[in-house]
Design a protein that fits this description.
Layout lengths: L6 E6 L12 E4 L7 E2 L6 E3 L1 H7 L10 E4 L7 E3 L7 E2 L3 E6 L6 H8 L2 H10 L10 H5 L8 H41 L9 E4 L2 E4 L3 E4 L4 E3 L9 H7 L5 E2 L4 E2 L7 E9 L13 E10 L3 E6 L5 H10 L16 H4 L3 E4 L2 H41 L5
Parallel strand pairs: 2-7, 3-6, 13-16
Antiparallel strand pairs: 1-8, 2-4, 5-6, 5-8, 9-10, 11-18, 12-17, 13-14, 15-16, 15-17
């Protein structure tokens, strides 16, 4: 049978760009389509008026699937109960017929290795690979009885539910870290009763200094060594490869091992309000040639640096008439209030507790995702009986 045979509708997104309004209803673009669930971190939002324009073809609802037509081709996420969203560009809405296809099962089925291979093989485009609507509708599929689908989906969904819960816990930990940093380094709450002095950043506690980004961090850009396409293919998937704002599928040559921050060089890594998109990375990885690689230095831990950069408006430090960039010269214009080493240690001891919990949960999620991914083909093929 074909995919269209088990669906009530398969609808393309509006072919227009909706501006991020910062608040309102989530607009699902390809970066927000994870492997099974929607990812709301950094999601664009639109007003009710724009939402109504973008649902004229179909109103996304719980149980619908959203598939990425481009970048990355083939990712599929299930809309969960309580999630009100609309479609951005280059995505497709799939509504299964619940008598024929369980929504969760169909999501996992479309994410299986064989189907992903076929989707990517059908993708075409001279510059950016994309899926045609006819290829999506006419995708050949095989589904077991609906009762079997529901049992398999139930097993896999339990793992994804735990991953989603862990992600919410981590989001809360990140908010706690930001609140702590704001209290100490922006509102100066623990130091209100002391003397304050004027500085380039305004009034700061007496005894504090103002330092630039390169004075509180170590930059590792010289270790980024790009490989040829052939070498990349040979070394692909040995370790994660990170671009300026997302994990990617191939690798460059230098392996970083430890805890680092990645900050994109160009202006695309800025949010609308001037905050940079950052990645906090632990373990072994490769970065591409458009990401600054940083660690904390001179009393600042990498975790403190992460908090500081997340709070810092650096839009004015992005320059370039043709290609906007955050150069090393511009980095020296990004300033931070810096206390004594004793204050830094006291703050960092509290911060590390939050980041330690965050890393532990991320490791647990990696194990859960690995278990899910290993079970998926066995369940779909009948090798595992549930």
């Amino acid at each position: 049978m074909k995919l269209i045979d088990v669906c009530e509708l398969i609808v393309d997104c509006p072919h227009s760009t909706a501006k991020d309004e910062g608040q309102g209803i989530p607009l699902v673009r390809t970066p927000n389509i994870g492997k099974g669930r929607l990812e709301f971190a950094g999601i664009h939002r639109v007003s009710e008026t724009i939402y109504n324009l973008r649902i004229e073809r179909a109103t996304p609802k719980a149980g619908d699937l959203i598939l990425a037509r481009e970048a990355p081709v083939g990712n599929v996420a299930l809309i969960m109960p309580g999630q009100k969203v609309c479609l951005g560009q280059r995505v497709v809405l799939i509504r299964p017929n619940q008598i024929k296809a369980d929504s969760a099962y169909l999501t996992y089925y479309l994410l299986s290795k064989d189907v992903q291979h076929r989707l990517k093989s059908n993708a075409n485009g001279a510059v950016v690979a994309h899926l045609n609507m006819d290829d999506i509708r006419n995708l050949e599929i095989e589904l077991p009885d609906i009762s079997v689908q529901k049992r398999i989906a139930g097993v896999l969904s339990c793992l994804d539910d735990k991953i989603a819960l862990n992600n919410r816990i981590n989001h809360n930990l990140e908010e706690q870290a930001q609140t702590l940093y704001k209290s100490w380094f922006i509102d100066f709450e623990p130091f209100k009763d002391g003397k304050f002095i004027d500085s380039e950043l305004g009034m700061i506690p007496d005894g504090w200094q103002v330092k630039n980004l390169l004075e509180i961090s170590q930059l590792f850009d010289s270790k980024r060594k790009p490989l040829s396409g052939k070498d990349r293919d040979q070394m692909a998937k040995l370790y994660p490869y990170y671009g300026a704002t997302s994990i990617m599928d191939y690798v460059d040559s230098y392996i970083f091992d430890g805890t680092y921050l990645l900050m994109g060089e160009d202006g695309s890594v800025m949010t609308e309000d001037g905050y940079p998109y950052l990645q906090y990375v632990t373990g072994k990885f490769w970065p591409n040639n458009h990401a600054h690689v940083l660690q904390g230095n001179n009393g600042f831990s990498t975790e403190m640096l992460h908090c500081a950069l997340l709070r810092k408006v650096i839009k004015s430090s992005v320059t370039g008439a043709v290609q906007a960039k955050i150069s090393q010269a511009n980095m020296r214009k990004i300033l931070f209030p810096c206390p004594s080493s004793d204050v830094l240690r006291a703050f960092d001891s509290q911060l590390q507790t939050l980041y330690c919990q965050k890393r532990s949960i991320e490791a647990q999620n990696a194990n859960l995702a690995s278990l899910r991914d290993s079970m998926l083909p066995q369940l779909l093929s009948g090798q595992l009986i549930c």
